[in-house]
Amino acid sequence: MQLHGRDDDIKLLRSKLRELAKKDDCDEDAAKNHVGEMILVSGTSGTGKSTLIHKGLAGDASKIGYIFVSGKFEDKLLRPLSAFSDAMSCLAKYITVEHNNKMGKGPSTATLLRDKIQNEFDEDDMEQLRQVLPGCAELLGTRRYSLPSSQAQAQADAAVLIRSGSGSKLGDVRRRASLTLAGKESISRMHNAVRRLLKIICPCLKGVVLFIDDLQWSDTATLDLLKSIILDGEIPRLLIVGAYREDEVPE
Ligand SMILES: Nc1ncnc2c1ncn2[C@@H]1O[C@H](COP(=O)(O)OP(=O)(O)O)[C@@H](O)[C@H]1O
Ligand SMILES: [Mg+2]
What we know:
With 251 residues, the chain is α/β, with parallel strands linked by helices. Helix content is 57%, strand content 10%. Strands 1-4-3-2 form a four-stranded parallel sheet.
């Protein structure tokens, strides 16, 4: 499909991506000096935001070896973290299926990553990651040992709190207010676990573009998580792109 009138925007997006790729390639200590960035594309409905990113950036990303993954919020489907979780599922699927097919002898990227992940996280973190990113279950691997049932129940309760602790779209202030301190600590721990997961995955790949579409329908849990990822400063080879309807952003 021919994109009309978007040459400058496409040029800008591609140059940003190449700039990031070059910085991470040149900087041997990129993991320590990386400045998180996010590109936001705004406009009213139907002005070509999604098309611009899918057609103008995704192909270029794969040309330089970056994996392009995306997730999209839906107006009616209010599943907290859904678009982020969907994008991460695409990434995990790519690693466990497509990328695996390209491997020759020796352990696959998926196996290497799974080992690193299993060494990095304790079972509490793993359980939280499985709850928040169910599509990454295969990449995360199966549990090594069972939690005592009381601990497992506490984790499940915390995960429910995380999932219900969102709702900018719903405007459900009561739900947010009901977050307990334990819930907040759990959320911060979840942010930390997701960031550590990205720190393991992204450097093992050439790079990742993570596109979250229709952010105007996102939950606050997603915005908080994205902020935490961008501000981390030690996640190399990751470009987050978002698109939103500027006239439909909730107050
Ligand atoms: N630059 C473009 N040139 C031609 N058609 C376009 C362009 N950008 C978008 N379109 C078309 O316009 C429609 C709306 O685009 P879309 O990307 O879905 O908008 P948005 O995400 O802003 O709501 C789609 O049918 C798409 O194919
Ligand atoms: Mg769109």
